[in-house]
Amino acid sequence: MDFDEHDPMRRSSLPYPMELGSPAFAPIAIEKEKDILLNTSRLNAKQEYDRIMEQVNVLKRQAEALQNRMQVSEIMHHCEYSLRVVHGNLYYVYYNTYKNKNVLSMNAPNRWSGISAPAHYTYIMTVRLMGDSTWEQVDDGFSNYKKE
Fold this sequence. Notes:
The protein has 148 residues and is of the alpha+beta class. It has helices at 10-13, 30-77, and strands spanning 90-96, 101-105, 121-129, 135-138.
């Protein structure tokens, strides 16, 4: 069949070869193409899912930290102290067994004028007043403090 006589441009627009010297032509394996597309979409979806879960974990840690600060702030609200607290400074909470109350002090467990804190004081935690007026528990090495 000769296309040059009727429509010379048709030869180059056909999706299949019409001459012996044309490039090789093979049918597309549709199932294989579908599998490749599915695997690619799964890979992209997994990467996006992992990125979102990473963000969820960050938000979860932030929410837990905020919840912990609110619990410490509740404890501090009932704490007894007679000093002016300054944002950002470290303070130490002791349990006073004579008064059955928590007491706020500027003295670390190893910084009392005597050998250690008074016998009726039990070290509880180290705290810091944050800029938003909540209290944050700080791990400063005294969390496992034992009186000698």
